[in-house]
């Protein structure tokens, strides 16, 4: 399971937001002895690009080992938020005794596979309308934002933030919208652990559907964690990759680039 955050702007430190963690906190797992070599390699990569800020967090699910590089460097969520939004839709469906409708599945597919922003916006706004969240009766289609008049939705943000809390995410929070909030690599690891290990507040079949969408097949998803598909790690083949990438430019021309993934090596060894 891999939580990776890349930022092309200056680093920033924010206060940690305490939250109970039903998913064990990756930051509390012991560091591996090989971390010095990884740090040296990342230092070398960072040195190639003047002004770039790199942060990386990883957690080996099978071994219970974690690694963090510049954990206080933040990036904007951009499109990686589409996974917790999808998890929020799935959570609402289970809580209200419903299942995903065909329209919701179409929106989720467009949002996750092709990183479609209009589809994501409809899913997000649907979180603030519980009837629409269950029935999938959202305005417009994945390519149409007609009927959506307000990008800000405090109620939807509250639902999303509850999902973050359930995942054990400590610092990342929606301030009323999606995509333009800060995130940290260790928070992304917590989200990916939910994808890898499962959560009891989402139906197993629905979570499997979300995993099936997180493929590195589309060109928007075959970089970052997506490059691990088909590779070998210490002589063992990578058998599966679930990934979500995101990117967001600033007015200055700087880019925030983020990639989060679950990488399965061999039969069942997963790293986040």
Automatic annotation (TrEMBL):
This is Serine hydrolase. GO terms for molecular function: beta-lactamase activity. Transmembrane segments: none annotated. InterPro entries: Beta-lactam/transpept-like (IPR012338), Beta-lactam_class-A (IPR000871). Signal peptide: none annotated. One of its GO terms (biological process) is beta-lactam antibiotic catabolic process.
């Amino acid at each position: 399971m891999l939580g990776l955050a890349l930022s092309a702007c200056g680093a920033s430190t924010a206060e940690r937001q305490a939250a109970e963690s039903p998913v064990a906190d990756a930051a509390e797992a012991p560091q591996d002895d090989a971390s010095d070599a990884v740090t040296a390699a990342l230092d070398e990569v960072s040195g190639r690009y003047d002004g770039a800020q790199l942060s990386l967090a990883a957690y080996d699910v099978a071994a219970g080992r974690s690694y963090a590089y510049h954990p206080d460097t933040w990036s904007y969520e951009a499109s990686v938020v589409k996974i917790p939004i999808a998890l929020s839709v799935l959570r609402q469906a289970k809580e209200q005794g419903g299942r995903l409708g065909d329209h919701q599945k179409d929106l989720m597919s467009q949002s996750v596979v092709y990183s479609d922003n209009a589809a994501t916006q409809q899913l997000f706004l649907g979180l603030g309308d519980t009837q629409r969240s269950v029935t999938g009766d959202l305005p417009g289609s994945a390519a149409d934002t007609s009927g959506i008049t307000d990008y800000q939705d405090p109620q939807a943000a509250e639902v999303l933030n509850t999902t973050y809390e359930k995942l054990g995410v400590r610092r990342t929070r929606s301030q009323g919208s999606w995509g333009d909030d800060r995130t940290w690599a260790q928070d992304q690891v917590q989200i990916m652990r939910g994808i890898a290990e499962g959560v009891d507040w989402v139906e197993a079949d629905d979570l499997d559907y979300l995993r099936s969408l997180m493929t590195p097949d589309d060109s928007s998803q075959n970089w970052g964690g997506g490059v691990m598909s088909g590779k070998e790690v210490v002589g063992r083949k990578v058998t599966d990759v679930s990934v979500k990438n995101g990117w967001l430019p600033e007015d200055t021309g700087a880019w925030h680039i983020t990639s989060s993934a679950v990488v399965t090596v061999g039969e069942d060894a997963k790293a986040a």
